[in-house]
Design goal:
The protein contains 19 helices and twelve strands. Strand 10 and strand 11 form a beta hairpin. It binds protoporphyrin IX containing FE.
Length: 483
């Protein structure tokens, strides 16, 4: 039952005040405990809320790079302290910070996510550490590795073409961000759950927006909060996945038009981990919810940024088009794209990589200190939250000359040095969906450039993080089909 219905307003306010006061004293205790240590320089910001709202509003105003760079300049470009979502936090910067965090998993640090994410994604991989995490990653990677995914390229190709015929063909204007979501979501639903066809009436699709908007923030489960809406949406999506699991179990038992490798759901139902244990139904539900989220919104963000850069830089568009036309020429009329074709899209992938350098879908990710340790001569106390930041290396002119400029040639040859290019993270918790994302981005690029050229309706439209990078007005474009 909802708290607001249970308690009259004064009691509710008193309860909130009590909660805030307790949080305040806990925060002060934690801060005082570390007072005599040589902590990184920085500011904890306001009591309780720390710099949370400053960070979130910088992210939503599209100025997160400036927010981080200002603090690196003011305090220390290697590591500085802040406070986020009620916890003291050290922000690790640059390739050295990335290297330290990525190579210390399960030693000095382990993966950590804000409690809103933990609560929404329950027993999924993001809440697992140590051996359990290794097992779950191995299970998921057995489906998401390139050997498996190469068989799905013709399917991705067909989904991309149906998507473009349905949502782009015959239109003069398209709002990119909401439109490309239909493609990335359709792909995820098809490869993870074998849900095919139009998705606009599916409950999973209609509830996803609310789920996403409550992922990062204070996990206050009161009516009207983003988190409350997200919890409700997550439960409804899970219920839908549960129905699909029930049916699939029956179909697999009776060998009815299903195969153990048709999608990630069947794969998880029939594959045990290396100890012979199968994931429980709840674990399967939670991991599929995680994959649906991690696996479509990141690629959606990348495709929106890609469409912007291709419109802004016609010389880049022309080279991508030339490469894609060349690949088509070598194929028979109407023949599907294969994995080997995608391997030839070298310049196009350099372009996508440069998009991910300049406009990564996420700002970085989090770890937690497992013990007191020293980094850059500072003490990092046990229990502190740690944040590694993508922009602190992607926008460093010592690593990427002229970092503001779009230059796909940076990725030619050996490419950037280790730990400096990190849109997918690194180390034992690196993104599991890198190959999936590469294939879906390149397949989409192939078809969209071959069919259209486009102009931005507002060439100055800004992008913001909420929680993923997205265009503030959805990126409307004017389409010009090739004849
Ligand atoms: C352009 C697209 C994508 C980007 C930029 C991206 C980025 C990231 C980043 C930065 C992390 C955190 C890594 C860390 O903490 O070190 C991550 C984790 C993760 N990603 Fe992705 N991702 C993308 C696409 C995908 C796709 C398509 C899937 C699934 C098919 C996926 C599944 C995951 C999972 C399951 C994790 C958690 C891994 C763990 O905790 O061990 N991602 N991703």
């Amino acid at each position: 039952m909802e708290l607001a219905k249970l308690l009259p307003m004064p009691e509710l306010l008193a309860l909130l005040l009590l909660l805030l006061l307790s949080l305040h004293f806990i925060t002060r205790k934690i801060r005082n405990r570390n007072q005599n240590q040589n902590l990184p320089p920085g500011s904890y910001g306001w009591p309780i809320v720390g710099e949370t709202f400053k960070f979130i509003s910088a992210a939503r105003e599209g100025s997160v790079v400036r927010f981080i760079q200002e603090r690196m300049e003011r305090y220390d470009s290697r590591v500085y302290k802040t406070s986020f979502l009620g916890d003291p936090m050290a922000v690790f910067c640059g390739p050295a910070g990335n290297k330290f965090l990525f190579s210390n998993e399960n030693k000095n640090v382990q993966v950590w996510w804000p409690s809103s994410i933990k609560k929404l994604l329950r027993s999924s991989l993001v809440n697992k550490v140590g051996d359990e995490a290794k097992m779950t990653r191995r299970l998921l990677l057995a489906f998401l590795n390139h050997e498996m995914l190469r068989n799905f390229v013709p399917k991705m190709d067909s989904i991309a073409q149906i998507h473009i015929n349905t949502h782009w063909q015959g239109k003069e204007e398209v709002v990119v961000h909401s439109t490309v979501q239909k493609y990335t979501f359709a792909l995820a639903c098809s490869l993870f759950l074998s849900i095919e066809g139009p998705l606009h009436d599916s409950k999973i699709s209609s509830r996803f927006h609310q789920f996403l908007k409550g992922l990062v923030g204070f996990p206050i489960n009161l009516p009207g909060t983003r988190f409350h809406q997200a919890m409700k949406a997550a439960n409804e999506i899970r219920q839908e996945i549960r129905n699909i699991i029930k049916q699939r179990k029956l179909d697999l038992e009776q060998k009815r038009l299903v195969s153990p490798s048709q999608d990630i759901l069947s794969h998880l139902l029939v594959t045990p981990d290396s100890n012979g244990r199968f994931l429980t139904e709840i674990e399967i539900m939670d991991n599929i919810l995680l994959l649906l989220f991690a696996g479509h919104d990141t690629s959606r963000s990348t495709l929106s940024s890609l469409m912007r850069y291709l419109a802004q830089f016609p010389h880049v568009y022309d080279k991508v088009l030339a490469e894609q036309v060349e690949i088509s020429r070598a194929k028979g009329e109407g023949e599907s794209l294969q994995w080997e074709d995608v391997q030839k899209m070298k310049y196009s992938w350099n372009v996508a990589s440069e998009v991910l350098r300049l406009s990564p879908p996420v700002t970085g990710a989090y770890r937690e200190a497992l013990k007191d340790f020293t980094y850059a001569d500072y003490t990092i106390p046990k229990g502190w939250k740690l944040h590694w930041t993508i922009c602190s290396s992607h926008m460093d002119e010592k690593i990427f000359a002229n970092p503001e400029a779009f230059d796909a040639w940076r990725f030619e040859g050996t490419g950037p040095t280790a730990y400096s290019y990190v849109p997918f993270g690194g180390g034992p918790r690196m993104c599991l969906g890198q190959e999936f994302a590469r294939l879906e981005i390149l397949v989409f690029m192939h078809h969209i450039v071959k069919r259209f050229k486009w102009d931005l309706v507002d060439p100055n439209e800004k992008f913001k993080y909420d929680p993923m990078l997205e265009p503030v007005n959805g990126l409307p474009i004017l389409l010009h089909p090739h004849h």
